[in-house]
Amino acid sequence: MGDAVTATLRLGVIGAGAMGTDHVRTITTAVPGATVTQVHDRDAVRANQVAQRAGGEVAASAEELIGSDEVDAVVVAAPDATHAGLVLACIDAEKPVLCEKPLAVTAQDALRVVEAEVAYGRRLVQVGFMRRYDPGYVRLKETLAAGDLGDVRVVHNVHRNASSATSATGPGIITGSMVHELDTVAWLLDDQVVGIRVESPVKDGLPDPQLATLEMAGGALATVEVFVNARYGYDVRCEVVGTAGTAALARTPSVSTRTAGVEGVEVASDFVIYFADAYRHELAAWTRAARAGGVDGPTAWDGYLANLVAEAGVASLASGTRQAVAAAPRPTLYDGIR
Amino acid sequence: MGDAVTATLRLGVIGAGAMGTDHVRTITTAVPGATVTQVHDRDAVRANQVAQRAGGEVAASAEELIGSDEVDAVVVAAPDATHAGLVLACIDAEKPVLCEKPLAVTAQDALRVVEAEVAYGRRLVQVGFMRRYDPGYVRLKETLAAGDLGDVRVVHNVHRNASSATSATGPGIITGSMVHELDTVAWLLDDQVVGIRVESPVKDGLPDPQLATLEMAGGALATVEVFVNARYGYDVRCEVVGTAGTAALARTPSVSTRTAGVEGVEVASDFVIYFADAYRHELAAWTRAARAGGVDGPTAWDGYLANLVAEAGVASLASGTRQAVAAAPRPTLYDGIR
Amino acid sequence: MGDAVTATLRLGVIGAGAMGTDHVRTITTAVPGATVTQVHDRDAVRANQVAQRAGGEVAASAEELIGSDEVDAVVVAAPDATHAGLVLACIDAEKPVLCEKPLAVTAQDALRVVEAEVAYGRRLVQVGFMRRYDPGYVRLKETLAAGDLGDVRVVHNVHRNASSATSATGPGIITGSMVHELDTVAWLLDDQVVGIRVESPVKDGLPDPQLATLEMAGGALATVEVFVNARYGYDVRCEVVGTAGTAALARTPSVSTRTAGVEGVEVASDFVIYFADAYRHELAAWTRAARAGGVDGPTAWDGYLANLVAEAGVASLASGTRQAVAAAPRPTLYDGIR
Amino acid sequence: MGDAVTATLRLGVIGAGAMGTDHVRTITTAVPGATVTQVHDRDAVRANQVAQRAGGEVAASAEELIGSDEVDAVVVAAPDATHAGLVLACIDAEKPVLCEKPLAVTAQDALRVVEAEVAYGRRLVQVGFMRRYDPGYVRLKETLAAGDLGDVRVVHNVHRNASSATSATGPGIITGSMVHELDTVAWLLDDQVVGIRVESPVKDGLPDPQLATLEMAGGALATVEVFVNARYGYDVRCEVVGTAGTAALARTPSVSTRTAGVEGVEVASDFVIYFADAYRHELAAWTRAARAGGVDGPTAWDGYLANLVAEAGVASLASGTRQAVAAAPRPTLYDGIR
User: Fold this and answer.
1) What DSSP character marks residue B217?
2) Less Cβ around it within 10 Å: N or C end of chain D?
3) Pick from A257, A228, D136, D255: which is nearest to C263 by CA?
């Protein structure tokens, strides 16, 4: 419990789709100190619905929202292609921004955001890698930090969705889904991906599931299975294997039942349900930081790195070969952040 | 997501001990729409500490706080002996009140609160049986409602604390700890306790653990083990056994580790940690209801019943015999609430 | 691994029903050093089937089988009412006998077996409380012996069958099913039941489930739920609660599956499957002891005590009151056995 | 339960090290119908110890044992380098042989065994891939066969030992440990490995852990982690991921304990304990088949394939590149076996 911050943070939310709507629901029901004053979406009807529920107004354009005197900070939950541009506009307006992943569609565009932030000279951007706020991942990182596992050698990751949109593509699975693991493994190990290989057992049609191997600068290897049509539900697993032991995300169902010869627990249906706590903590931490004039969590630099590794992954899936990942030099603005 | 309620609820908190402090922490970090404007505690120093963190003022007395124009609703987390009197004062002041369990020290005093509320003609009192807001218990009740378990025959409950205060007594274990199960079982089954037997394997010294058997009006039986010096941690379990299957609270640790020949998960250290979500949902639901001019959750009547059954339990522990529980007639004010 | 015993033990099996058939299957497939030479059953057809599979002969009567020169030791898996008489005949014939529980229909009859064995002067009788050979229960007893749990205060037991015969009765549930817990708790704690109370939520029709409370001479209390029409499968649980921690039988499914929104494991369908290892170890230990001229495991005295406590339980269920259990003085023949 | 086979199978056991000793213990305590008549080991003292316990004789040489009139069938648990030669001698002697894995040190040598068996015209050789008899793996294969998982896309395998001999080498981890997964995955999927890649996060010193990716002829991919110095205990996991769901080996601890803030279950210390049931079922099935004049389980051909894939794995670990696996044409003798 820190000292009280009295001013309420006035938020503008760009994007009133599933993610934006859920963020507004979380803010209005579980995040004190923030109020949604403006909402924009290309679809005015749903912008209006969300704005009404939140007690805010509809902004005619994203630009207007970002520039508004009624908006202290911005949540970007619009289509991926717009992210980099909107975040740049927020930097221009000198307003803190929480941008849903990915930060940009290409690593190059993400680097432009980094450069703009560096030019501005102070961090304003948080990228929506909400897993860093999930109680399980947080506890995993604490367990690693406590040293009980020795040196980390391997991290195993599984990431499954019940079903994907029919528009899903092989590269899209990497940039849209696997990107979470690309960030999470680096964050957990305080390390960087320097090589990646992605392959799929499915050669015809959508390459799903995909298996990736990540090589970390520090030597550890990580495996990643992403399966966006796993049918049975939403499922995320992470096991860290060290020289003295292992630690893994635990299951957290609410109840277990015994009926008809089966002892069973529910599997979450989707990520909004599975990561509800993570989204709540993410929004609360960002709000807290913004009210105090600062910023928290995954940086634009993390967003750039995730884009960069994802691009290498896409190249690997296409070529069938391992791809090296060579990042630009890290600006000092991002020193010591994790 | 309901329609927005614009006015912020101004809360007065009576009691700045562990529970009151935690409630204030929860309100300020996770409950939008409420602000703590006044705090009172017999210990002015800790009242001041909590008030400062919350951005509120210290009230010189509980009466002053309840009567203050700066207070819309009251949280009572003061010593048990003061509960009934404070809640009566809140009813007098026509302000919604969330009172930590127990509602009163005796069933007779609890009944006085009920009568005052009935005389006032509208419900203002919520008793702090927070388990009704715990995601596990909620899901358990939903599972029962879905009918998959058939008719309920038995409910098994386990309730363990790592250690008790040295001042713990046999009756105190019933009125302070087992009282949660006395309410929860009735709520889960939408039924009422009509008989209770309490015994302990320990005949000399503190009778701990205690085993209780509850007879429900509808015929089901419930077992309760309460063990307030279980040493290993805080632990709550509930299994409902029906004619077609069973359902139980599931474990929800964050991570599991494998080290030194053991695969293990953490056991929560105390109820504040174990029921953090329950407290948050309780406070959020109460705030939501109060902002809308209403009240939610466990009623003064539920508080009275829990007191009544606990008294019978105390008598049973002392006498070694089963005690019948005969409640007063239920006022119509409480019809259809659950 | 002990020194080799060369002679093969020639077994006579009385009773070719489900239990007897399964014992013969276990002996022929998993117990070296024993061979089934004679089988008797009132139903000659099934006696013949079992004998053929085992490579043995059909005996015209139980008496003939017990007296046969081709039979070194006897397995009694005939109807309960015949147990005591058959075991007495085995003692007369000076042959080791493994008798399915219960040892007798009444405690008085069981005591007669005890007296006959005492008169003979050497133990020949093992009662089929196979749970004492179950790897889980064995590990539980070892855990208790290691002292990690402190002093035992409570034991919780659950014992469920998918469904009972239509001929099931309230007393039969105690003498046929609960009798396992009556023995197991005493064995685990190396203690004796001195009081019992049995009740059921079902007042009309078959009193099922039943809840029992056992008072041990050493002060500990045990709860037992027996539910012979639990529908969902066969289920046995045991948790020992000590002053420093608890230990419980763990689940041991073969696989877990995730399909259609559920992560599930199979529940065993019946006790033959659930306790397959226990039956195997029981038969192996008994065979090993008999080949070495001795006897192993639960004694006639244990069988008598189980009968005695069950009778008190039946009286409690009928009367609704707690019943004291007063055993005869233990003959020195049974000193130090556990 | 099949019809009785009266003749006892007389076994010769070559190798009285840890594995041979454990096999003899299993045979004498849990496998009816077999007796160990001869034991040979280069170390006469330990040969004598094992022979005495089993009630058998010591054979002066492996050749003498294989040729003895007192030996109907042979168990080979001698050093790896002797396996192929001993199995060839058994084929010469027309005696069934259960040979510990690997069948040979090189795929070429294994192929020689295959050719000898083919020349003989009837199968005599079973290779000791005991996992095929493990209840968990068996249930996993049944679950796959039932079709509930849809088409298999991925299999994840983890295989950990607490510690390795100081003589362990990178290639040895593949041929000695990973070889189990090389056989198991093929058996589970009724498929064949056509490509393999092995890498390790450890570049200096023993390459441990190792990660392998297996490409199956049918398109599925398998991941394998082998970690022979995992410290915390022995651990085996297998999850099969299909288009309709997944199935995995479940944990089967005996008890769970709650002490000092941790709910824990024991991890097995080594494979002899973990796979005790698998070894028992393996020996029982082999004995049953041999008594009936036949053979069961994994064939010499399976042994050859495992050798072949392991060799490719060794080459991959050395070269850092994916290796194709091209098997000789399968002799018709092995048609339809699985």
Assistant:
1) T
2) C
3) A257
Stated as kind and residue range, the H or E segment containing D98 is strand D97-99
Q: How far apart are CA C313 and CA C196, in angstroms?
A: 6
| R_g over Cα of chain D | 20
* Interchain proximity B199–C209, CB inside 8 Å: no
Residue B104: which of B126, B80, B86, B72 has the closest Cα? B80
B258 touches chain A (CB under 8 A): yes
3-state helix, strand, coil in chain D (%, to 5): 40, 25, 35
Indicate if ipTM > 0.85.
yes
Q: Which D residues in the span 15-34 are in contact with C, Cβ-Cβ below 8 Å?
A: 24-25, 27-34
Flag whether the pTM goes above 0.90: yes
DSSP class of B269: S
**β-bridge mates for residue A211, sequence order:** A199, A225
* φ, ψ (nearest 5 deg) of residue B235: -150, 130
Q: Which domains does chain A have, with CATH numbers?
A: 9-131+278-303 (3.40.50.720), 135-272 (3.30.360.10)
Burial of A98 (0-12, 13-18, 19+ CB in 10 A): buried
- Number of Cβ within 10 Å of residue A284's Cβ equals 21
Q: Do C139 and D254 touch (CB under 8 A)?
A: yes
Question: Nearest to residue C130, comparing CAs of C187, C79, C82, C169?
Answer: C187
Sign of CA dihedral D311, D315, D317, D323: negative
**By the CB < 8 Å criterion, does B213 face chain C?**
yes
C207-248 pLDDT per residue, tens: 999 999 999 999 999 999 999 999 999 999 999 999 999 999
Q: Does C49 touch chain D (CB under 8 A)?
A: no
First CA to last CA distance, chain C: 21
Enumerate the β-bridge partners of residue B160.
Answer: B227, B235
- C130: helix, strand or coil: helix
Hey, what amino acid is at D187?
Answer: W
Candidates D158, D201, D231; nearest CB to A220: D201
Q: Which two tokens stand for residue C269?
A: 């369908």
Bridge partner list, B265: B256, D263
Residue B208, SS3? Answer: coil
> Would you call B266 and D265 a contact, using CB atoms and an 8 Å cutoff?
no
CA–CA gap between residue D313 and residue D55 (Å, rounded): 43
Is residue B322 less than 8 Å (CB to CB) from chain C? no
Region of residue A105 (phi > 0: left; psi between -120 and 50: alpha; otherwise: beta)? alpha
With tokens 């009133």, the residue in question is A16
How much is the CA Rg of chain B, to the nearest whole Å?
Answer: 20
Instruction: Convert the pLDDT of each residue in A238-269 to its tens digit.
Output: 999 999 999 999 999 999 999 999 999 999 99
**Closest in D223, D231, D245 to A244, CB measured:** D231
DSSP D215: E
> Is the alpha carbon torsion for C324, C329, C330, C336 positive or negative?
positive
Nearest to A255 by CA among C234, B143, B233, B129: B143
Task: Give SS3 for B252.
Answer: coil
**Residue D293 Cα distances to C29, D122, D128, D276, angstroms:** 17, 11, 19, 26
Q: What is the pLDDT of residues C244-275, one digit of tens each?
A: 999 999 999 999 999 999 999 999 999 999 99
- For A281, the closest chain B residue by CA position comes to B30
In angstroms, the Cα distances linking A4 to A32, A297, C202 are 11, 21, 57
Distance CA B99, CA B298 (A): 10
- For residues C37 and C22, what is the distance between their CA atoms, to the nearest angstrom? 16
**Quick one: pLDDT band at residue A154, thresholds 50, 70, 90?**
very high
Query: Directed axis angle between helix C276-291 and helix C135-146, to 10°?
Result: 80
What is the rounded CA–CA span in Å between residue A257 and residue B149?
9
CA count, 13 A, side-chain hemisphere, A156: 21
